[in-house]
Each structure stands twice: as C-alpha cells, then as structure tokens.
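Q: Given only this backbone (286 positions), what sequence would you predict?
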C-alpha cells in the first residue's frame, strides 16, 4: 500500500509530500510535534498527547491549527489511508510560512504535517526480552526541554553516539551528575531499596505521556515510586533500569556504558510493567 501524508489540508502521496522552503519549522525549528503509538488502529494515550500539544503550542505562542475533534479526524484518516494497525502517527505544527525573519510573522496560518508508519511489535518484544544498552552523555540541550519542539539536534547527536558505541539509547547527565532523561524517552531505575525512581518533570525534562500513564499503572500495581534524581552511580548499582516512550513503549536497560545492571538481564519489574502498560494502553486506545 503506497504511503500517504497530510500536508496543510491535503492528503498526498508520501513521496511527493513537501513543505515550503520558508516554512519556519524548516528554517528555525519554530515548530512542535507529537507522536502517538497506534495500537489496533487506534491512538494510545490520546488525551495526554493532545493536552501536551496544546501546552507546547501555547508556550511558543503558535495558534492551534484546528480543533481537537478535527485533528483527531485527520490523524485517524492518515492511519487508515496508510493501513497502520500497529505503529506510530507523527504530527508537526510549525508557526507557518513567511519571509525569513527572526520576529514572529503576523497573520500567518500554522503549517501542519501528519505521517504514519507501521512498527514491528514482534521486534519490539524481542528487544524488550533481550534488553538494551545505553550510554551516558553530558546534558547539552536548551533550557526548555519541557516543550516538545522539533529542535532535536543534541538528541540526534546523542542517539548516534549510542549507535556508534553499540548501544540503543543515550542518557543525558546534568552538571550535578544526575540523569535527566534519554535522547527519546524517559529514564527509570529500580534502586537498591526496590523503589522505582524517575526524574521529576520540573528538572527540564519532557513530560512524557507514556511516563504519565506508567505512573498511573504503578499505582494500580502497588509499587513504590519516587520522582527524584538519581546519579549514574546509583543507576549502575540499581536492581533494574528501563526507559519509557511512545516509540519503544517500555524497554529494559541491561547495560550502562558497557557495565551490566543487576545480572545483565531484563528484570522482573520492568518486564511486569511493560506488560501492564501495554494492556492499559490497548484497553484505553481511542
């Protein structure tokens, strides 16, 4: 089935989809984005992503391009036209097209792009069963990582460094030696006392929607969780570690900078939480 994209009101062949050369997302990274997991053809964690989208747009003073109801129609239509049952749907909203100038243009409509692609869930499950490696890297990003902008160059450099090192992810480490988050996910550990820990969202990290749903799952699973910092040394001494995000869902971490976590295999808590999260997300998908 040929892929289809949505670009500024039109459904077009993916290979022909394009934005204007003076789209501010292209020239300034003056744009935000969201990525929903698609489960059974439906949007997972839908409400949380729409709420975060509105917040990101408001923080950058970009107008909402359409109502949530209309946007849901577009997202579902792109999913349908691409025949995606299991996968991801990507939305990008830029400030729009205008003559290149640092000052915000007036009377310009936001530009909207939506694409969708399939994900091999079996491959994800195999990765989770094996566990992934991460590397650590100094925090080099700007001070507003809470806004989901397309300005992701530090994240790309970190992800590439991880690949070059034979790992899957990179964890950013701040000036105090604490892990902030991964290049495209939130970071978690099960510390030496058996407490789940993840960084608080006031610490210049993205308010992950998978993270938010997982916190709700933790309450139903009666597991103790604390939103507070942890160092690389604490992560290395942890019982378990894992990452959460719309792309890989929950992925156990078994190595940090080449050193094993626990016995070097996915732990029972991460494995249990992955199953519980997926069950919850599928049940509530819209």
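A: Predicted residues:
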């Amino acid at each position: 089935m040929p892929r289809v994209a949505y670009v500024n009101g039109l459904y077009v062949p993916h290979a022909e989809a394009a934005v204007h050369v003076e789209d501010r997302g292209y020239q300034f990274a003056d744009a935000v984005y969201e990525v929903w997991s698609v489960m059974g053809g439906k949007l997972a964690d839908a409400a949380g992503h729409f709420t975060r989208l509105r917040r990101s747009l408001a923080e950058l003073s970009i107008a909402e391009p359409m109502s949530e109801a209309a946007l849901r129609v577009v997202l579902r239509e792109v999913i349908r036209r691409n025949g995606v049952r299991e996968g991801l749907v990507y939305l990008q909203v830029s400030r729009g097209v205008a003559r290149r100038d640092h000052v915000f243009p007036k009377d310009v409509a936001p530009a909207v792009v939506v694409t969708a692609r399939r994900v091999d869930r079996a491959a994800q499950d195999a990765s989770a069963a094996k566990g992934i490696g991460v590397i650590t890297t100094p925090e080099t990003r700007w001070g507003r990582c809470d806004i989901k902008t397309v300005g992701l160059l530090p994240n790309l450099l970190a992800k590439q460094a991880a690949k070059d090192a034979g790992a899957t992810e990179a964890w950013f480490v701040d000036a105090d030696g604490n892990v902030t988050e991964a290049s495209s996910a939130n970071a978690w550990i099960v510390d030496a006392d058996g407490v789940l820990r993840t960084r608080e969202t006031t610490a210049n990290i993205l308010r992950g929607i998978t993270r938010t749903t997982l916190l709700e799952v933790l309450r139903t699973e009666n597991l103790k969780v604390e939103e507070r910092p942890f160092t690389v040394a604490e992560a290395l001494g942890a019982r378990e570690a894992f990452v959460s995000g719309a792309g890989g869902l929950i992925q156990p971490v078994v190595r940090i900078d080449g050193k094993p976590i626990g016995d070097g295999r996915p732990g029972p808590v991460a494995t249990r939480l992955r199953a519980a999260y997926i069950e919850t997300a599928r049940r509530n998908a819209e």
